[in-house]
Amino acid sequence: MRARTVVTHSPEETLALGVELSREMQPPVLVLLLGDLGAGKTTLTKGIVAGLGAATEEEVTSPTFTMIHEYGPAPATALGTGRDGGARVYHVDLYRVETARELETLGLEDLLAERAVVIVEWGERLGPALRPAGGRVIEIRLEAAGEDERRIEIR
Ligand code: ADP
Ligand code: MG
User: Fold this and answer.
1) Ligand 1 pocket, residue 39 CB under 6 Å
2) Rounded Cα–Cα distance for residues 6 and 88 (Å)
């Protein structure tokens, strides 16, 4: 991913940036979203997931209570070969995770071992031990720079 800083001026612009960034995300990849409440992490995620073709932006909602949402093709099972449609994407929100024990019970290692795009809001709460098998990590820091302005630093 090319390092750069972008300022967006509306939620729509942030969505569009997510779509653009999704083109540079080849699974397996871990996307860490850093920044405060209201910084635009979920909005950017909607764009990324939609851009990857795993779900529509309306289908992507904040996983604050469930901690993990899953989008994309269903895995093959004994009953069928799965469902087509883009990459497998996990959308994780660590806002409510308070202890190392809680983090462990989420089973993030298993997600990172898959050929998936794993997007983590409050990514600063993820320890350095949790990294994808391929080792690719994209860090995106979001910051409110005004009512509708968001400074988004990608590296
Ligand atoms: P987070 O997941 O970081 O808490 P959300 O994406 O859920 O943030 O919320 C961002 C809020 O900020 C939304 O209410 C959105 O409408 C508003 N907003 C205003 N300007 C922008 C912008 N440029 N980019 C993203 N969100 C914006
Ligand atoms: Mg959020």
Assistant:
1) yes
2) 26
Residue 140: closest CA among 42, 68, 61, 10: 42
pLDDT, tens digit, for every residue of 90-119? 999 999 998 989 999 999 999 999 989 999
| CA dist list (Å): 29 to 50, 87, 146 | 16, 11, 31
Please report which helix (H) or strand (E) contains residue 101, including its range. helix 100-105
Q: Is 42 touching ligand 1 by the criterion CB < 6 Å?
A: yes
| Structure token pair of residue 74 | 């269903």
Phi, psi at residue 35, to the nearest 5°? 145, 160
The pairing of beta strand 89-93 with beta strand 29-34: unpaired
Q: What DSSP letter does each residue of 42-65 carry, written as one string? A: HHHHHHHHHHTTSS-TTT----TT
DSSP 141: E
CA 112 to ligand 1 center in whole angstroms: 27
Whether the predicted model's global pTM rises above the 0.85 cut: yes
